[in-house]
Amino acid sequence: MGIVVQKYGGSSVADAAGIKRVAQRIVNTKKAGNDVVVVVSAMGDTTDELRDLAEEVSPLPPPRELDMLLTAGERISMALVAMAIAQLGHKAQSFTGSQAGVITTAEHGKAKIIDITPGRIQAAIDEGSIAIVAGFQGVSQDTKDVTTLGRGASDTTAVALAAALGADVCEIYSDVDGVFTADPRIVPTAKKLDSVSYEEMLEMAASGAKILHLRCVEYARRFNMPVHVRSSFSTKEGTWILPTPSENEATMEQAIISGVAHDRSEAKITVVGVPDKVGEAARIFEALADAGVNIDMVVQNISAAATGLTDISFTLPREDGQTAMGALAKVESQIGYEKLLFDDQIGKVSLIGAGMRSYPGVTAKFFASLASAGINIEMISTSEIRISVIVDSADVDNAVQATHTAFGLDADEVEAVVYGGTGR
Amino acid sequence: MGIVVQKYGGSSVADAAGIKRVAQRIVNTKKAGNDVVVVVSAMGDTTDELRDLAEEVSPLPPPRELDMLLTAGERISMALVAMAIAQLGHKAQSFTGSQAGVITTAEHGKAKIIDITPGRIQAAIDEGSIAIVAGFQGVSQDTKDVTTLGRGASDTTAVALAAALGADVCEIYSDVDGVFTADPRIVPTAKKLDSVSYEEMLEMAASGAKILHLRCVEYARRFNMPVHVRSSFSTKEGTWILPTPSENEATMEQAIISGVAHDRSEAKITVVGVPDKVGEAARIFEALADAGVNIDMVVQNISAAATGLTDISFTLPREDGQTAMGALAKVESQIGYEKLLFDDQIGKVSLIGAGMRSYPGVTAKFFASLASAGINIEMISTSEIRISVIVDSADVDNAVQATHTAFGLDADEVEAVVYGGTGR
Question: What Pfam families is this protein classified in (chains A, B) (predicted)?
Answer without folding.
Answer: AA_kinase (PF00696), ACT_9 (PF22468)
